[in-house]
Amino acid sequence: MYQELIDKKAKLAVIGLGYVGLPIALEFARKISVIGFDISEKRIEMMKQGIDPSNELEKESFRGCDIVFTNSLDVLREAKFFIVAVPTPVDEHNVPDLIPVKKASETVGKVVKKGDYVVFESTVYPGCTEEDCLPIIEKLSGLKNVTDFKMGYSPERINPGDKKHTLSSVVKVVSGCDAESLEEIAKVYELVVKAGVHRASSIKVAEAAKIIENTQRDLNIALMNELSVIFDKMGINTYEVLNAAGTKWNFLKFFPGLVGGHCIGVDPYYLTHKAQELGYTPQVILAGRSINDSMGSYVAQKVVQHIIEYSGNVKKSKVLVKGATFKENVSDIRNSKVADVVKELKSFFVNVDVEDPFADSGELMHEYGFGLVNSVGNDYDAVIITVPHEEYLGLDDNYFASICKPHALVADLKGIYRNKINNRNYWSL
């Protein structure tokens, strides 16, 4: 398979061209022939014009690439090596939503042929690839894994907004259904991953490795968030504590904040879901999730308490929320916990304005029921800086004084203005 791809006698297809799939497709397209497949005709047309619908890649990224963008199964059928990179969210009850990955499996089942390879990159719980996806492919194709086609799993490690830790610079974990497939899949990924690949012993091991990457971060951030609540009650600043503790060589540097997005705030639920299916209820992981999921409400309540103390009239109060995306310098609003802050504030009848230089107002309205203001006012009772976008880093004391009432609170969740706000009340996690 590897040699066929190198000689361009075979094509590689990427199914799902979002934050993960498109960078992978374009990277491979600089080396081999690629088919980029997505069910959205609108997205396909944008990519044909060299536009990344996710606003992550510049137009230059499309140049010099041997790639065809399509939503046609007939075109997709021309490929012999398939990479599935569709999203794996959770529903409103934090239960894994496997609809996208199962639909993608149906697509693969309709086009896979004898001798083909299928590699999943979507983040799932251990066992999902072989127990949930593979049966769909085998049923629709009439083919059998190992004997007719080869299955593998290579967890994505794309970090939106990160220009340093890119696909080629981060070690790629790969796995296969047998020794032969493992080597072929590894060689294919080595074409584009300069940092090299790690050969996992099984598909389940590779799936589990991806899950615990983000579960570990989630738990560490949960600890920081809980510490911030405790230290706030003690009247000491969490960031000052962390700076002091960080002078020890083995102290792990994590920080408090809202934990959203499609990875850290979602992946642990895939692991806990599978564990509960097996009769075990995780305690530490779910405790961390509970803490992180509660932080939006906690922040809003701290702001409301300040308004009650200093102005008394919550219904006439105005709060500006700066930042609506799930992290800094990206347009991605998926699972943004800023929405929790806005929702909680509005439950107290606070008037809320939201602004963000990266987010799309229409997407926010569709997803969360609120949009962005066209211009920032000058009479806020509080300003909450939820996301440290680059545009916010240069703001100073005079700026906040110009948009806030004298009694206003500057709630700086990531501590970027610590020791810089003197003319207004200041608080951080």
Structure notes:
The protein has 429 residues and is of the alpha/beta class. It folds into two domains: 2-201, NAD(P)-binding Rossmann-like Domain (Rossmann fold, 3-Layer(aba) Sandwich), CATH 3.40.50; 220-427, 3-Layer(aba) Sandwich (Rossmann fold). The protein has 15 helices and 13 strands. It has helices at 2-6, 21-29, 41-48, 73-76, 99-111, 128-141, 179-190, 203-234, 238-245, 267-277, 284-310, 338-347, 361-368, 390-393, 397-403, and strands at residues 11-15, 34-37, 67-70, 79-84, 117-120, 150-153, 172-176, 197-199, 318-322, 351-355, 380-385, 404-412, 425-427. The strands form two sheets. The protein has an eight-stranded mixed beta sheet with strand order 3-2-1-4-5-6-7-8, sandwiched between helices. Helix 8 packs across helix 10. The longest helix is centred in the middle third of the chain and has 32 residues, at 203-234. The model has no long low-confidence stretch (mean pLDDT 94).
